[in-house]
Amino acid sequence: MKRCTFGLFLMTVLLLPLSADPFEFPYTDAYLTAMGGGGAALQGVSPGLWSNPSSLNGRGVRSFYSRLYGGNIQHLGIGASMAVYDHWVGLTFQTLGTTLNGDYSGNAGEYALGLVVARSLTPRVRLGLRMNTFVAQDPRFQRHTSWGVDVGLLFQPQRFFRIGVWYRNLNQPEIVTPLARAPLARWLETALLMEPYPGTRTLVSLRQSPYAPLAWSVGQEVRLNAYPVSFRVSYRREGSLLDAFSMGAGFTYRTFQLHYSVLMVPELPLTHLFSVDWEIQP
Question: pLDDT averaged over the chain?
């Protein structure tokens, strides 16, 4: 008989070694995963939709899909962004869940709907805000909701490097069900992006959260100027919870981009992530 609380459900049924807290969504699209999972200093549609809200810049549609650790846990999302006057505005939806069998059969998972707004304060400084609605679903009770606020700042003092800061769940939300009270994790992520040469990027990210006092990752991207292909590799460390290596590639055809990455965690099956991006021309 499955008598776990919602928090234990997330830790044991979903088997996410670095997602002990609900609605953490540790890995989203293939591009961010191949760069280490943290994109606070990146700039564009994908980083702004799924990571630092101040990174949002550009028109486009983003989607991703993964089956975590080769099991029955599916993570998918879709988002779009557009310009509204002097702001960039984006909408996102993502879900992480599985199907339970036995005494409590049915769909169980997490859903998040987000609104992202970003704008430039100066030519070198950008500010962003994300408002999330969280929905928890479990076969034993009706859906329960909460909401959270993320803020981000992007600073580019020089052309070849950029600094990003992202504060997740500033208002400290929580999901309350008849079985448990599950606070949603707050974390602070700081990242440095360096582009010393055309076609190369190095991303270093640091994150502080309740479950990992200091997590860090390093990602490297190399773009082939003669071909529409880029390669990425990264390493991520989260205390004793996670020691992960990821690599991937991206291919561009006109206004479409296809990204793939593989996540390798010791003693767990591989996770394959796919993303399809569409750039909307002005």
Answer: 85
